Amino acid sequence: xxxxxDRLVDRLIxxxxxxxxxxxxxxxxxxxxxxxxxxxxxxxxxxxxxxRVIHLAEHRLAMPIIGSNAMSRPMGTDWSWRPMLWKGPxxxxxxxxxxxxxxxxxxxxxxxxxxxxxxxxxxxxxxxATDLAPFGLRMDVFRFDGSFLSLVLELPDDAVEGLRMTHLxxxxxxxxxxxxxxxxxxxxxxxxxxxxxxxxxxxxxxxEVKVEFDLAYTKLNEKRVERIWVDLIFEGxxxxxxxxxxxxxxxxxxxxL
Length: 257
Hints:
The chain has three helices and 13 strands. The radius of gyration is 26 Å and the shape is elongated. Strand 9 (182-191) and strand 10 (194-201) form a beta hairpin. It is of the alpha+beta class and 257 residues long.
């Protein structure tokens, strides 16, 4: 009963405040300047807090919902993952003049060899009806005097558990660009002192941007797998804006022939 009473009091107060400001708005044109100046100060203080509430509410209530892990999973998938950068808000949403080995968030790092960095990165909120990931990553590249630019993603420990040479690892992406460029994905698997690498070019001209890494063509030592990471390599990124709206990984056993 107490909670219902509190809600009733809140509604009554809210209606009273609305009536008060509605009357002030109706008679503001006839108020003397001293009173008008006072009410303006009150209105500005109120508006600042209202704007904060509206901004936070729109951010949290926008679709897709923050923390959503909805994604397309191929049949037979035994592991899938979306990096945190695309799943939830990160502590520092944007960086400018990004330096080599700059960590955007835990598990996501930028590498380049520019003498002078004119690269900015920012986490953006996805709001389109087709978006499954709550967030995306925008990279703005201006003058680029280096020879390489890559985004390194460290896969979690459970990606290693039970990994076999019979597995296919799939990367799915949603990519937007101002102008065409090439993006390569390089899968790296550390097993003992060795690192197996498989490189695939993302088919950016196709409706579904996805690549598969078939571990059957590697010399993987299944008993000594330690970690997995993926390099996204951007070729010719100068004077371009690239938005990675979504990025997901999945793993499934290859069909027996």
